[in-house]
Amino acid sequence: MPVKINDNETDFWTPGEAKDAQDALLSLIQGATTELYTSDYAFCWVPLWEALQVADKRGVKVHVLVDLSQSARIWSQLQAFRASLTQGDVTVTTAGPTSPRPSQINHTKAMWTPEGVCWEGSVNFSMSGWEESNTCRLFTSVAWAQMATALFISLREWALTHVKQLDTAGPTREELLALPPESEI
Questions:
Q1: For 72, which of 79, 104, 147, 175 is 20 to 30 Å away at the CA?
Q2: What is the pTM of this model?
Q3: Is 70 exceeded by the pLDDT of residue 123?
Q4: How many CB atoms lie within 10 A of CB 77?
């Protein structure tokens, strides 16, 4: 059973509350009216992609940051997803200037609207992520959304000049080998 912390926050533990958590995340997307930001390590959960595409068709500007190490594994699918968006964008990134080692992973799992409806947690946006032991929360905070948006924009601007993007061929074997080893992730 999800834990309602107060009127502004509900917390979930997966896998036991995965269905409730999924419904809450998809509800956030369905409620978005102008813009929606998401920063993701793993970004391969089909219901998420479908909900974001529906939001885009409603006129919501969908902005996605996705980690390079995970993107490389599904490059062509991400290219197709990005091409399906008419209102938003998909940017591939690493930890970038937020880390003393910019090539490290972007391990964020968050989503928010400018109005302050926010999602954050340890669950990856993948089918296996919902089946693992994770926590996540749905909460409201305009201040958090503003901070997250500023970080998102800064990282996106950096990534556009420092990380291979979806308008190119996928990473080469050498580029993949240059990524941090799994043991450092």
A1: 147
A2: 0.92
A3: yes
A4: 14
Phi, psi of 170 (to 5 degrees): -60, 165
Give the 3-state secondary structure of residue 75. Answer: helix
Task: Encode burial over 36-70: b for 16+ CB neighbours within 10 A, e otherwise.
Answer: bbbbbbbbbbeebbebbbebbeeebbbbbbbbbbb
The two structure tokens encoding residue 14: 């997966």
SS3 call for 163: coil
Residue for token pair 């690493």: 94
Question: Which amino acid makes up residue 6?
Answer: N
Q: Which of these, 159, 146, 150, 145, lies nearest to 106 by C-alpha position?
A: 159
User: Could you tell me if 119 and 111 are in contact, meaning their C-beta atoms sit under 8 angstroms apart?
Assistant: yes
Q: What is the CATH number of domain 3-179?
A: 3.30.870.10
Cite the DSSP H helix spans in the chain: 18-31, 46-57, 68-71, 75-84, 127-131, 142-162, 173-177
Give the contacts of 28 (CB within 8 A, at least 6 positions apart). Answer: 36, 111, 113, 117, 119, 138
Average pLDDT, integer, range 26-32: 98
Q: What are the tokens at 153?
A: 């924009």
Task: State yes or no: pLDDT of 181 exceeds 70.
Answer: no
CA distance 37 to 9: 19
Q: Evaluate whether 68 touches 179 at the Cβ level (below 8 Å).
A: yes
